[in-house]
Amino acid sequence: MLSSECGYLVRRFAHLQHEKWSKIPKSKKQSKFKIDLNLPHVCRCVNNIMGGRYRDMRHWMYDHYLDYPSFEEALKHPYPGICLNDWDWFCHNIYNSTSFQTQSTKNKANRAKLPYVHCGGSRPFVNYLEDDMVDGEIELFRVTHFNKTNGWVNEVAHSKHAIFRGLGNRPHPTSTRGIDTSEADRLYGIISSQKSRLDSQDVELKEQKKTIDQLESKLSQFESMMQ
Fold it and tell me: Would you say the pTM of this structure is higher than 0.90?
């Protein structure tokens, strides 16, 4: 998969002493590929994937940083595979910066407001459907909010899934007869909007898949050169 190849390139070759992927000079990005990044759609596709993998890498490094009780202790223990010079730069210029700490506090506060979070990792939800890994949106919700080891992410998500399953094959109610159907209406709206969004993305996804197939072929050639 192209995303896996990009993840490998980020972990193995990316210049880490930059605030984000878009700040890395173009010349340093181009040197890692044997593909024509002058084509706008190819460049956009690759940069979107590489930017995501770069953020993932930084997130894993930050989790490692938080494993230690103090800044000084964290400095002594670089993330596996990261040289001490890069780790020192990250700790001083990113993790210990006022702007990063402020944003981190805001992110924690925002996450605390969510009724539940998913456990689907960094993989885009639409990829599960595109690759036929799940059968519909209800199954997608289960896969991304439940795992065999820890169960449901919380009871709210479990209850929502039960409601989704109950509504999955039912006709939309046409008469309330005094019954409050506001929750059902809201859920029908969510399902409908998700289906509409996926339908609108279908054409774009097919084009992206075609581009990705071409890139994977070229990247496999690049990988063989490295062996």
Answer: no
Secondary structure of 102-153 as H, E, C letters: HHHHHHHHHHHHCCCCCCCCCCCHHHHHHCCCCCCHHHHHHHHHEECCCEEC
Residue 70 lies in a domain: yes
Using alpha carbons, select from 197, 201, 102, 187 the residue that is nearest to residue 138. Answer: 187
Domain boundary among 64, 81, 113: 113
The token pair at 5 is 């190849």
CB 16 within 8 A of CB 3: no
pLDDT above 70 (res 50): yes
pLDDT in tens, 3-31: 566 666 666 667 677 767 667 776 666 65
Q: Which domain holds residue 159?
A: 125-226
